[in-house]
Amino acid sequence: MDGPYIHHSNALGIQLTETVKRGIHDIDRPFSFANKPEFIFHDSPGFETGDEDQLKKVQEFIEKRAKATE
């Protein structure tokens, strides 16, 4: 698996495939590349003007991760 894949605690993960359609972005689903597994990425859908819910979700994610020990 050279392309990006989604991490799972009990398996290597799910291979991601390219598409022209907009994907579902979930900041709580980490992904990485097989050739650099030490780099783990988190993706959010971004921010729309006035979308306070998404901003709050990202802020909560950052606060939670800042307190993590692993």
Descriptive keywords:
alpha+beta; flat; 4-stranded antiparallel sheet; 70 residues; single chain; 1 helix
SSE string? EEEEH
Q: Overall mean pLDDT score?
A: 75
Distance between the termini: 25 Å
Structural class: alpha+beta
Q: Give the low-pLDDT segments.
A: none
Structure, explained:
The protein has one helix spanning 52-67; strands at residues 4-8, 11-15, 31-33, 36-41. The chain has 70 residues and is α+β, with helices and mostly antiparallel strands. Strands 2-1-3-4 form a four-stranded antiparallel sheet, with no helix packed on it. A hairpin with a 2-residue loop joins strand 3 (31-33) and strand 4 (36-41). It is flat, with a radius of gyration of 14 Å.
Write the layout of secondary structure elements.
Elements: E1 4-8, E2 11-15, E3 31-33, E4 36-41, H1 52-67
Antiparallel strand pairs: 1-2, 1-3, 3-4
The gist of it:
This protein is of the alpha+beta class and 70 residues long. Helices cover 23% and strands 27% of the residues.
